[in-house]
Amino acid sequence: MEMKALSKASTIYEVAQRAGVSIATVSRALRDSDLVTADTRAKVRAAAAELRFTPNRSGRSLAEGRHAANGIVFPDLVGPYYAEVVLGYEEAAAAVGSSVLILATHGRADAAAAVQELAGRVDGLAIMGQTVGDDVVRDIAATGLPLVLLARDPVPGVDTIRTRNERTAGQLTEHLLGHGHRGFAFLGDPAGSPDVAGRYTGLAAALRRHGLIPPAPVPCGLDLDSGERAARGLLTRPPDAVVCANDEIALGVHLAAERRRIHIPGDVAVTGWDDLMAARFAHLTTVAQPMRELGTVAARWLHRRIGERAARTGRPTAVRRRVLPTQLVVRRSCGTHPSEVHR
Amino acid sequence: MEMKALSKASTIYEVAQRAGVSIATVSRALRDSDLVTADTRAKVRAAAAELRFTPNRSGRSLAEGRHAANGIVFPDLVGPYYAEVVLGYEEAAAAVGSSVLILATHGRADAAAAVQELAGRVDGLAIMGQTVGDDVVRDIAATGLPLVLLARDPVPGVDTIRTRNERTAGQLTEHLLGHGHRGFAFLGDPAGSPDVAGRYTGLAAALRRHGLIPPAPVPCGLDLDSGERAARGLLTRPPDAVVCANDEIALGVHLAAERRRIHIPGDVAVTGWDDLMAARFAHLTTVAQPMRELGTVAARWLHRRIGERAARTGRPTAVRRRVLPTQLVVRRSCGTHPSEVHR
DNA sequence: GTGAAAGCGCTAACAC
DNA sequence: GTGTTAGCGCTTTCAC
């Protein structure tokens, strides 16, 4: 049967009429309810196909009282870091039938409003890092919307997933000390993010254990350019080792050193954090984080909370906290140990 | 005034009651209609704030007949490539008040169903690369939903944005020929994506112009591992130059060469495509694409089409096609020219 | 300027 | 099994 192109999406009423049944039957047939005969189902499916019918999600959501969608809020997607988290989140959410809404705050001033609006569109929300203040988190949590915080300091009553910073930063420091480095610099702003704070704390603690005085952190944005800029000052009289809050900063230092013909690790050791793909090719010693898993776990936790809420089954599970392990990845930039295997 | 935590999102009715007005007035006040006095507006705002009221989007969407959300479909987010596009898209969409829904198909078999379902949630949809077949695109287009295809062969009646492949691949080839390379290999599957096909075509055409016989392409996935695997066979007897369909493949070749102590570019020249961050640190000659812009333009076009549709203003604008320029980025991996500036 | 009421497209009782 | 119908939460005429 020839069809003319439709300029407007068709509704369940049209499908019902075409199939010669009621809208209730269409609804049932299309959602594989076992309250319809195979015959009816086929008839309805045929009509729906002819009309290229796709149920309007707003109608369905309103009736069901759920959105079948989750949201994730992150500062940006420029580095590969957040992209990985989002991907893991999307994958796990899709696996349980949820769509995913993303929101990049870009440090916008109206981020709070955007997150609030997002909260009205989803059944659960993951909030990463320093995107909005604790007040916003508390407000949203107060509405009962399932929430999970990612790579961010906990807020009472809200689930949180983080990655291990202090301990691994300690290991990294020990490793650098093992290379004989004694003069350290730290590039990054502990006040800007709890992750950075944890990394600095771990470094400082390890140095103190060895009787060394930790350097004051050199405040620095988390991107390549900031790293390069910050390195300019630092490299006029390079320390033994520059511990960077993340890979992008370290890569920026790498570029600055290259430009000045300062050799890494001969003249100065450099380390990063995140294990980006670029780190491998810059031979950067760094710390690998399970970013994908961060997203996956967040989506699973949310799914569970959403289920709990829908079931209205008494008190929900206690607040959950998890710290995912991270792993030191030794490459050349921290100093050369003949005994070490570089990959 | 003290408030107890709410376990359920409040509705416009509760706000209306608290403010002592009708729901119509609440609706108006909250959306800054000038049909309410400043006094009333203040009263309503206060009530809404106390109740932590966020309008339910399903209700609003249903009433307005629009979702205020756009979707974007991509195969994956693993490489930094798609992440950039998505980011550009999100940014531009957010700027015009649209939320963004993402869908990664991961080569899933039920991708078509997922895309169809997504189509029912959005006012416009961007579809990237080889995520779903043309039949799905045509079906969705037939419903009248504004659509834009990204990095993909056009479908009649649907807007398309691509990046330049053939011409720049020709420039790249000329450059390699200028280094004196004559024996070429191409890593990538032209049948797998129109982008790859264009790059291969550009290479082949340039070689023919110089009286050389183009090599048959070596089929290869677009990720690092595939590149490394494909390189293993190739590097037993390396050609002069290996032109890779993207950076990840080229970086895989880089790793394989490193392992075999084959020197780039001394023993073999290698080039990529995309200009990922890692390419810079691997000194990879490649081609930069305006990925962010791809997303931005897509979101803008969709916004325009959505406007046209809502206005029902006669015939819509003609189908649009755009090819965004790409740019050769020369680094060390293609061969050393003393005269060239490397960055 | 404000309120009453009619939908928007769908699901889910409830009736038959 | 299938149909009827009452909402879901919101926007938007239409009265006043």
TrEMBL record, chains A, B:
Q: SMART domains per the record?
A: HTH_LACI
For this UniProt entry, the molecular function terms from Gene Ontology, in alphabetical order, are: DNA-binding transcription factor activity; transcription cis-regulatory region binding
Which keywords, in A-to-Z order, does the entry hold? Answer: DNA-binding, Repressor, Transcription, Transcription regulation
Record-linked Pfam families: LacI, Peripla_BP_3
Record flagged with keyword Transcription: yes
Ranges of residues in domain HTH lacI-type: 10-64
The molecule here is called LacI family transcriptional regulator
